[in-house]
Amino acid sequence: MTMILGLYNYWVVIVLMMIGFYIIIAHGHLIKKIIGLNIFQTSVFIFYISVGKVEGATAPIWQEGIILYSNPLPHVLILTAIVVGIATTALGLALIIRIKEAYGVIDEDEIQAMDNQAMVNQDKEHQ
Predict the structure, then answer these.
(1) Long-range contacts of 95-98 (CB under 8 A, 24+ apart)
(2) Does 60 have pLDDT greater than 80?
(3) Coil, strand, or helix at residue 124?
(4) What is the Rg, in whole angstroms, of the alpha carbon atoms belonging to the chain?
(5) Is 105 in a helix, a strand, or coil?
């Protein structure tokens, strides 16, 4: 039981990952999909930070008597991933604004129905 409770951060990662994945798959609203993607990204960030933490280790600065160091690479990669995540979110929201201007809606099913109707109308014109 203590092993399960001792790894609570991994359980948080799993729960957040499944919540984000569910939101992406189950909802047709495009802004909800962006939110789900952000929740999923956050779970990946927490996972990498958890993996990078070494129990009883110190920062990789050389000092006498210290033999166990923590690798800073996962933390640096997460900083880069946060920047990429913000840029991806901004691009996604900009695309949603453009889709709203073009279609008047931001629900995936309604956009698909409009595209299908436009294709049917175009096929009728060519016949």
Answers:
(1) 96/30, 96/31, 96/34
(2) no
(3) helix
(4) 22
(5) coil
3-state secondary structure 17-71: HHHHHHHHHHCCEHHHHHHHHHHHHHHHHHHHHHHHCCCCCECCCCCCCCCCECC
Contacts of 109 (CB under 8 A, 6+ apart): 28
Give per-residue pLDDT as tens, 77-111: 899 999 999 999 999 999 999 999 999 999 999 99
- Fill in the DSSP letter of residue 104: S
Q: What is the pTM of this model?
A: 0.81
pLDDT at 55 over 70: yes
In this predicted structure, what is the pLDDT of residue 45?
93
Residue with tokens 């008597």: 65
Domains (range + CATH), the chain: 2-55+69-126 (1.10.287.3510)
